[in-house]
Specification:
By secondary structure, the chain is an alpha+beta fold. The protein is built from three helices and 14 strands.
């Protein structure tokens, strides 16, 4: 019974660790992985598996990869995606909002109201989203109990609020001019001349 670690690719290299425990590492290049592992002292390589002898450096490297580097890559990816600038586009009658790890699309015909607000409402909690520093992306619950999708930089007001029959979406950009441009493209009104 080999434990399968998060895989990348369709092939795997099986490592036999101290005590007979086996671990499989997913890879797109099994021969290259076997060649690298075979360079370490105390490692015997076969065509189907790499045997790791007790106390070998490979066992330590494998444990390091599994315990530290894997989760660090996942966390780093989530942080990177969550702090990417919000991008909006309008094409074929649809507003698309891309907040890195969270996305929303709204048919323009479904929009009931668009407003420009000077501040965010009080937020009770995140229900399925990302929140770090001033970057808020995804689904949140407001203190009023109302659900909302947020694609905002909290410290860069104003905020465009898009209301449909089923949802309320708050969007802005770090650059006020970009926020004003989104508002104008949705309403036809120049907010600087209001």
């Amino acid at each position: 019974n080999a434990r399968l670690l998060p895989e990348s690719g369709f092939d795997a290299v099986e490592l036999t660790l101290e005590g007979g425990r086996r671990v499989r590492l997913g890879t797109e290049e099994p021969d290259a992985l076997v060649a690298v592992l075979s360079r370490f002292a105390g490692v015997a390589a076969g065509s189907a598996a790499v045997d790791v002898t007790p106390g070998s450096r490979v066992a330590a490297v494998v444990l390091l990869l599994v315990a530290v580097i894997g989760p660090a890559v996942v966390v780093g990816t989530v942080l990177y995606a969550g702090t990417r600038p919000v991008k909006t586009s309008i094409a074929n009658g649809v507003l698309s909002i891309n907040g890195g790890s969270s996305h929303a699309t709204v048919a323009l015909r479904d929009i009931k109201e668009v407003s420009l607000e000077p501040q965010l409402p009080a937020i009770a909690r995140r229900t399925n989203g990302f929140s770090m520093g001033g970057s808020l992306r995804g689904h949140f619950r407001l203190e009023s109990g109302e659900p909302a999708q947020l694609f905002v930089e909290r410290d860069h007001p104003p905020f465009v609020v898009i209301r449909t029959g089923a949802s309320r979406i708050w969007v802005n950009a770090s650059d006020t001019d970009a926020t004003f441009a989104l508002y104008k493209s949705l309403t036809g009104v120049d907010p600087e001349k209001r």
